[in-house]
Amino acid sequence: MSGHSKWATIKRAKGKADAARGKLFNRFIREITIAARMGGGDPTSNPRLRTAIAAARGANMPNKNIESAVLKGTGQLEGVSYEEITFEGYGPNGVAVLIEVVTDNRNRIVAEVRHLLTKYGGNLGQTNSVAWMFKAKGVITVAKEAMGEDELMELVLEAGADDMSAEGEEYEISTTVDAFDAVREALVNAKIEPTSAEITKVVDNPVMLTEENGAKVMKLVDALDDLDDAQHVYAGFDLS
After folding, report:
1. pLDDT, tens digit, for every residue of 95-105?
2. 8 A C-beta contact, residue 101 and residue 227
3. Where are the domains of the chain?
4. pLDDT tens digits along 111-139
5. CATH of domain 8-73
6. Whose CA is closest to 142, among 120, 119, 118, 168?
């Protein structure tokens, strides 16, 4: 079903480590600020802000940090002026890479992204060189002990999910972007707290790599993901 790469589990584990050192919180702050600036500070009428706040709360980010980020986004508090930039390029083995950043220094982040792509055997591409390959979808994960598989599948399919699969110790629920909020709310109403819930981007036909070649791409992904301004890094591959 999912097409969501098997290294998503690695990314989530890494995300937990980031949270411990505050990096994940900084990403949430930037995302909330941008979302509030683009669509207003009311999460009920701003889906992007609603998703960002839910993710921040899921990582136990203090409410005062969330409220401050919203106010900075709407201009009610003074803050840094952020810019969203999406970089496109290729990694080892011709794997398409999409890097989304939120930055206050365009020149710096352009140089950093170009340097890392070159260092790890890739190159920076032109606008829409690979972006067309990636499609947005919702991915929600739920611990297996939260509910029986049949009951959970019935719940999420009725709420509008596309499908559900077992991934390690979790169930992975796939949704369209439009159905994402409804499925997440159905879980919360059923007293189920997702272990993660995000709008992500995947390719329909990922490049299949051996473990060795996949590790090379992951070194690039990790290096890009470690950039202070990086919000999301997507790579169009899966492990055979």
Report:
1. 999 999 999 99
2. yes
3. 8-73, 83-132+205-239, 134-203
4. 999 999 999 999 999 999 999 999 999 99
5. 1.10.10.200
6. 168
